[in-house]
Amino acid sequence: MKIQIDDNGIEYFNRVCPYCKEDVRINRSNNKAVMFDNKVYHFECFSRMKQIHKKCKNCNKIFSFQNEEEINMLRYQNGFYCAECFKKLCDDGIVKKSKKWMNAHDNIEIYRKNARDNICEALKKKRNSASLISTMRDSLTSYAATIFAEYDVNNLIRANYNLQDVSVFYMRYLQPLYKGESKKYVSVKIPPVHLLEMWRTKLPYLTKLYQKQVAKGKEFSEVGRVVYDLSILVNKYEDFLEWKEKQRALEYEKTIIENTPINVKNIKPSVSAEGNNDVSEVLDDIFS
Questions:
Q1: Residue 97 lies in a domain
Q2: Would you say residue 88 lies in a domain?
Q3: In principle, which of 2, 55, 139, 179 could form an S-S bond with 35, CB 3.0–4.6 Å?
């Protein structure tokens, strides 16, 4: 994926919207687009695509709906009517003493509900709900993070390994590793976001190892050194995942502690012989 930089220095890439066939710009964050079935849509295009259309049987005007709040039609004898037309038909029928339209007027709320239920069911089938929109935006955020992480890994290699053309290395080593299809690292799949975090964190460590090897007389080609470091990271991946899990557990415990109310009245401060409060003992009481 080609990453571009605009005049303001903001990095982005484009995907073609399947609905309007125009580019969707995707930044590192704050994207308004959505991702559905692995395709990226402008939010407005996706909304139009997921709209329900109903034609008024009387005026032939087509009404479009993308959420329940917009529905203002009635369903009568398997036909849909806009509210304005249906009211006029009922009013004219009452003047003409038409039993059909007089009865329709008396049951207008039933026909309104029939239309709402029908359109809501159709909207549900098209999955155009607020929760789905949120999920699709999360999918796009994750997708964008992956693309930019690949880009950042490539830049990290260029900056630290004197390897300006990363394309061959990417195709031979990185892409198969991202997909879990590497012949060198069998049965290993590392997401670009994880590899980037590992590489950034371990770079000083990798540099020291490299310097030790050079001091021992070992020689590396430019690509050879990158492969050497990548192999170390792959071997450390299980440890990295365990570390990530511990970090999540610590964050969870921290959240629990921060959200747990402390009844200060129940804490009895320890007083020293001089009569001063022992603050450290009080804190031990709180967090023990």
A1: yes
A2: yes
A3: 139
| Residue 142 identity | S
What the block records as the tokens of 78 is: 């398997």
Write out the two tokens for 243. 């570390």
DSSP state of 273: T
Instruction: Output the six-digit token pair for 267.
Output: 């804490």
Flag residues of the chain having pLDDT under 70: 127-130, 262-288
pLDDT digits (tens, 9 = 90+) for 200-247: 999 999 999 999 999 999 999 999 999 999 999 999 999 999 999 998
Q: Do 34 and 137 touch, CB atoms closer than 8 A?
A: yes
HSE (CB half, 13 Å, CA atoms) of 20?
13
Range of the domain at 218: 162-246
d(CA 60, CA 141): 42
Number of domains in the chain: 2
DSSP characters over 35-61: EETTEEE-HHHHHHHT-EEEE-TTT--
